Amino acid sequence: MMTLQEAEARDAADPLKSYRALFDLPAELIYLDGNSLAPLPRATPERLQGVVSEEWGKGLVGSWNHAGWWEAPIRIGNKIAPLLGARPGEVVATDTTSANLFKLVMAAAALKPGAILAERDNFPTDAHIASEAARLLGRPFRLVDGADLADALATDVSVAIVTHVNYRTAARADMVKLNAAADRSGVTMIWDLSHSIGAVPLDLPRDGTRLAVGCSYKYLNGGPGAPAWLYVASDLQGDLRTPIAGWWGHAAPFAFEAEYRPADGIARFLSGTQPMLSLLSAEVGIDLMQSVDMVAVWEKSIALFELFADRMAALCPELTLVTPRDPAKRGSHISFQHEGAYGIIQALIERGVVGDYRAPGIARFGLTPLYLGFGDIWRASAILADVVRSEVWKDPRFATSRTVT
Amino acid sequence: MMTLQEAEARDAADPLKSYRALFDLPAELIYLDGNSLAPLPRATPERLQGVVSEEWGKGLVGSWNHAGWWEAPIRIGNKIAPLLGARPGEVVATDTTSANLFKLVMAAAALKPGAILAERDNFPTDAHIASEAARLLGRPFRLVDGADLADALATDVSVAIVTHVNYRTAARADMVKLNAAADRSGVTMIWDLSHSIGAVPLDLPRDGTRLAVGCSYKYLNGGPGAPAWLYVASDLQGDLRTPIAGWWGHAAPFAFEAEYRPADGIARFLSGTQPMLSLLSAEVGIDLMQSVDMVAVWEKSIALFELFADRMAALCPELTLVTPRDPAKRGSHISFQHEGAYGIIQALIERGVVGDYRAPGIARFGLTPLYLGFGDIWRASAILADVVRSEVWKDPRFATSRTVT
Fold first, then answer.
1. Distances from the Cα of A66 to the Cαs of A59, A157, A273, A287, B401, in angstroms?
2. 3-class SS at A179?
C-alpha cells in the first residue's frame, strides 16, 4: 500500500499540480466536497469586483450592451460546450438545473405521446420535475430503479430523465447502452450531468445524447447556486418549444412584440433576465476549465479513488464502499455506507476534513483532481479511519441536521 | 416655472437627501435609468466581497447552513413584503420574473377552466408566458388592450396577467377596480409590479391583490439581473401547486424523497438552487429600502415629474408627453414620444444624461427619488430640450440599436 512519502512523491510529479494554486483553498482543510460546491477560484474576487464596481457602478445600464452582459448566457454556454463534446450554439448557461429539466421535459414530451419516466435514485429534483410535468400533461408517470432502466425504456414512453453519475453512490449509467435502448423505443432521453461535467470526459454526440442539463457549481467552480446550463443538439433545437416563453428567448427581444416567436437556435431556451453577478462569477470557474486536459483529470481521479478505497479497506473494513470499483462504472466521488455516517461527517469536519452526508447512511467524498493531491487523500483516509474506529461519531453533539448538494 | 436656484433650494430641504450618499453614482452623470437598473449601493461591494472571500472562500459548502444561504429566498422575501403591504411568509425572492409568472399562471389556471388573458401593452414577457401557458394547457388565449381590460375580465376567463405600471408609458392601472371586476367574474389576477415596487406605495391586501410578481433590479437596487420575487396571499398558498416542482420547494428537501410533496407556505414556489451572489447582492439593495418612507418617495416623485413635464412643455413642445399627468394614474417614470427618440437618447448619453429608448418612438426617464434631485431634473430637461431642438439626434452615428429593460 502507498506510503505518505510515496503519495507526496506522486503529488510532486503530478502534471495537474499547478492548478491547485488557482484556488483559494484554506490551508488547514482537506476539502472533499468540491462535488457539492467547488472552492473559490483565486481569479473570481477581482473579476467580481470589476463587474460590481466598474461594469455596474460606472457602466450602469449601458453594461448590458458594452460589457457583454446580454450575450453572457450564450458566450458561457459556448465555453461549457467543449466539456460535453458539443459544438458552439448547442449549450446555454441559464436558470437552475430544475428549471432547465422542466423546459426540456415539457418540450420533448410534445414530440410523442406516452409516459414520462424518471429514475428512483435520481437526485430528487429530477423525479419531482418529471412527475409534475406528467401531471400537467395528463401523462402516466413512471418511477423506476436504475437497474431496470434499460427495460423500462419501452415504446409507450415519451421522455425519460436519467442521471449519468448518481449523486449518492457515484455509480455511472451506461450512456451508450441506454441511449441505444431509448432509440429503439423512440424515447427521448434527457441526461442530468451535474455530477459528470468537469469530472469525467464526455462526448455527447459520440454517445448519442441529444438533450442534457447540469449545474456549474460543482466541477465547474462557478460559485454557490451559480446558474445551470442546458444542451440541445443542433438538429433537435427547431423541434422543441420551451414552456417558459420569456422575452430573452424571443426571436427579436428588442422589438418588444406582444406575440411570442421563439429565437432560432439555443437562445430559445432562455426566458427571463439572468443573474449577472452569479453568471459572471461562474464564467471565471468555467474559464479555468478551458485549459484542462479532461483525460488527465480523469486518470488522476481514478488513482485518487484507488488510493482512498485501498486504504479504507485496509484501515477500516467497517465502512462499506458503495461506489463501483470499476472506473468505467463510476464518476469522481467515493461513498461509503455506515450506520454512523452523519456523525462521521460531522466529526471529520471538526478535524479539518470536509465531506458530506447523504441520507440514508452515506458518507460522500469528492475527488477533485485540480486541487486535491495524493497526500490529501492519504491523510484524509487516516483521519476517517480514526474517526470511525474511535467511535467519536456517537457523540450526541453530532445529531442529525442537513446538508446541501 | 422653477429656477435652477429654486430647484437646488428644494434639494437642500429634501427629507430624502441623505439617501443619495448611499449610492455610488458617477458624479458626472444624471442617471435617469434607475427604473431599468438601479445604481450600485455603496454597501454592496463590501458585502459581496465578504460573501465571496469569507462565506464561499473560507466557509465553503458549510455556508449553506452557517451563513444563511439556504434561508435567503424566504428571508429576503420577508424584507420585500412590507413594500407590498404583505405579511411575512407571503413573498419569496427567487428565479426570474418570467419564471415566476409561469409558475403562478399555471398554478392559478388549475383553479378554474377558461381562457388565459394578457394585456397587449404588457412588457412582452408577460404576454409570451401567458400565451405559451395557454397553449400548453389547451386553453384559449386572449390578448387585449389595456383600455378594454375591465370588460375583458369575463366569466369565461380563468387567469389574467396584468401590469400595474406600464413599462413604456408609466400609465398605472386601477388595481382596485380591475380586481373588483375580476372578482365578479371569478378571474384570478396576477399583477406584474416590476415598475411599481419601491416606486409607488402599495398595499396589496387592501387593494384585493392576491398574486403578484416583480423584479428587484429596478427600484429595489438589487443589481443586474438580480433574482425576482413572487407574492401569494397566505389563504391562496395551499390551493396552488407550482409546475416547476424542484427540491427547494419540497416539504422535506433534506430527506431526499423521490416523491414530490409541496412545502407548506410560500417555500413551495421555490424550485432549484438559487444564485447566491446575485441574491445576496439584491439583499443589500432591499435592506436599503427598509428605512425608506414610501409616502415621502412618492411625493417627491410627483414633484420631480411635475418639474420635468412643466419644463419640457415650455422648452420643447415638439416632445409629446405620453405619461398621464394625474399622479393617481401613473408610476415613477416619464416618457415622451418623438420620431427621433432613439437618437435623442443616444445624444443625451453622450452629454451625461442617461435615459432609455423603448420601441417604437419612446424616450423614457426614470424618476428615482432616493438618488435624484430637483437640480438634476432641471439640468436634464435643459439638455434634453437642447438635444431635441438642435436636431443632433439626426446624426447618422445614432443609428438604431437596442436596450435592455
1. 8, 47, 16, 20, 12
2. helix
pLDDT at B402 over 60: no
A177 as an active site residue: the answer is: no
The pLDDT tens digits of the residues spanning A12-57 come to 999 999 999 999 999 999 999 999 999 999 999 999 999 999 999 9
Query: Locate cell 485496509: which residue?
Result: A314
Interchain CB distance below 8 Å, B61 and A37: yes
**Between chains, do A96 and B70 touch, taking CB under 8 Å as contact?**
no
Per-residue model confidence as pLDDT tens digits over A240-290:
999 999 999 999 998 889 999 999 999 999 999 999 999 999 999 999 999
- What is the residue type of A167? Y
pLDDT at site B399:
76
Between CA B51 and CA B267 the distance in angstroms is 23
Nearest of B395, B391, B389, B392 to residue B318 by alpha carbon: B389
Candidate list A142, A210, A218, A330, residue with the active-site label: A218
Contact yes or no for B117/B130 (Cβ under 8 A): yes
Using a CB–CB cutoff of 8 Å, tell me whether A49 touches chain B.
yes
The 10 Å CB-count burial string (b at 16+, else e) for B66-75 is ebebbebbbe
* Helical residues (DSSP H) of A38-171, grouped into ranges: 44-49, 63-66, 72-84, 97-109, 124-137, 149-152
- Interface confidence, given as ipTM, is 0.97
Residues 6+ apart with CB under 8 A from A1: A310, A311, A314
Contact yes or no for B199/B301 (Cβ under 8 A): yes
Q: Specify whether B177 is catalytic.
A: no
Of A17, A40, A367, A353, nearest to A195 by C-alpha is A367
* Average pLDDT over all residues of chain B: 96
A403 at interface of B, judged by CB pairs closer than 8 A: yes
On the question of pLDDT at B26 being above 80, the answer is yes
B134's enclosing H/E stretch is helix B124-137
Among candidates A228, A246, A403 on the partner chain, residue whose Cβ is nearest the Cβ of B128: A246
Contact assignment for A57 to B70 by CB distance below 8 Å: no
Q: Do B61 and A403 touch (CB under 8 A)?
A: yes
DSSP state at residue B190: E
Q: Apex CA A49: angle with CA B401 and CA B218, to 5°?
A: 50
Q: For residue B228, give the C-alpha cell.
A: 425576482
Full strand arrangement of the beta sheet holding B320-321: B320-321, B333-337, B362-366, B356-358
Give the best residue of B220, B244, B398 to mutate against chain A (max A CB count within 10 A): B244
